[in-house]
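notes to self, project folder thing:

trying the whole complex as one job this time. last attempt i did each chain seperately and stitching them together was a nightmare. two parts in total, labels are on each line so i dont mix them up again. if this works i'll redo the older ones the same way
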Amino acid sequence: MGIGQLVALAIVGALLLTVIRQAHPGIALVVSIGLGVLLLTATLYQLKPIVTQLEALSSLGKVNNTLLIVVLKIIGIAYLVELGADICRDAGENALAARLELAGRILILAMGLPILTAVVASIAKLLQ
Amino acid sequence: MPDISTVFQLAGVGLLLALVYLVLKQTGREEIAQIVTLGGVILLLIMAVRLLTELFRSLETLFRF
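result (full assembly):
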């Protein structure tokens, strides 16, 4: 999908959702989840060439492949957590959204700490 | 690859359902309106979950889960 189609999708979805929400908020929530997921999926298809370029770049610089995979995983977690938290917030469950974001942060921290230790280890090796 | 017709499918079903709910409520058939709403929400949920699985699958392949 091009950017024009994405913008049109979002605007048409917003207009339809205002009408649906007045009649029945529950139906509007499900429709908004579907539209949001559709937008995100369309965005991911644009992201695919960027990731392959990033991999080519990292292999050019002889970066350890496992580190790149960890970074990609972190980006994926961020996408998913953002989606879930926004859906919760749309449904009016702000507390649930906050817990989900906390969980996402902790997961990202847990995945990122090995990278930090690798950086510190390489600095220590340089200093010796 | 998602296409634009999925949007109209999803939003159209939602719009139709909301209108049916309004009409049934106005004519005083509360119970039927509730049942129709329940069925419609389940239908929409199935469509949303199908989209969600597609999203998760592409996330898995893209970000190497």
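what i see at first glance: The first helix of chain B runs from residue 4 to 26.
need to look closer tmrw
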